[in-house]
Amino acid sequence: MDTEDTAAPSLAEEIAEYYGRDKEDARLRAGAGRLEFWRTQDVLRRLLPPAAARILDVGGGSGVHAQWLAADGHDVELLDPVPLHVERAARLPGVRARQGDARALDTPDASVDVVLLLGPLYHLPERPDRVRALAEAHRVVRPGGLVVAATINRFAPLHDNLSTGLYFDAEHRPQIEAAVGDGRMRPTGGPKSLFTTAYFHDPADVPAEFADAGLTPHAQYGLEGAAWLMGGIASWLEDPRRRALVLAAMRQTESVPSLLGISGHVLTAGTRPEDGPGR
């Protein structure tokens, strides 16, 4: 890959403002958001090489996943464009953290075993930027190394806001329907804005973005299945026995193509070809 253009693109102002509110860390550590957390952990632990793998956690936020990855014995470096996230992550045992942009990684070629992109693709509405981020992952991972990217599903805003009832609010509904139409979430500003600038994928489109970046996609995993839309999910997760049953149930359907889109999030896993040319 041509690496002459090394200037990191800037983070959009509204995205920086959104994550500067410091709510993302708590979202995955409490309530129904723990289903996404535990399912991400469950899938990754099955995909990752044995510890100590060198893992680059790109867009890793405040280190919610880096924390358990380091505790599992992996060598974890986290990059994130939000200074507050980097500051939080740097306090975690075993985690090195610094600012960085997924589209211009300041990391040597073929120097890591695994690249995780568990957030960056959400906030790159333009396909060339998403492919650029995946191509950077291809560049820095070793041949045969693993790349895993998370995407938000195209119909997640519709499903989520039907479940919460916000879809029935005439002020919210146009933003939801626009996102379902072309995958783009456009913040409206003020209290009626549901999210920040984002892109929601059709799961079937993600493997092509991997392939265009030089990666070989292997599998996709729906994280929450239909469980995230069921009443009572937060209380089920409080009970260790029920939580184990929920996680086991989600494994049964996680890679069924016709069911991928019902999840809020999908993980796509691929590898850098062993003998493929550099990009």
Automatic annotation (TrEMBL):
Keywords: Methyltransferase, S-adenosyl-L-methionine, Transferase. PANTHER family: METHYLTRANSFERASE, UBIQUINONE BIOSYNTHESIS O-METHYLTRANSFERASE, MITOCHONDRIAL. It comes from the Bacteria. This is SAM-dependent methyltransferase. One of its GO terms (molecular function) is S-adenosylmethionine-dependent methyltransferase activity. SUPFAM superfamilies: S-adenosyl-L-methionine-dependent methyltransferases. One of its GO terms (biological process) is methylation. It holds the Pfam family Methyltransf_25. The keyword Coiled coil does not apply. The keyword S-adenosyl-L-methionine applies. Residues 55-145 form the Methyltransferase domain. InterPro entries: Methyltransf_25, SAM-dependent_MTases_sf.
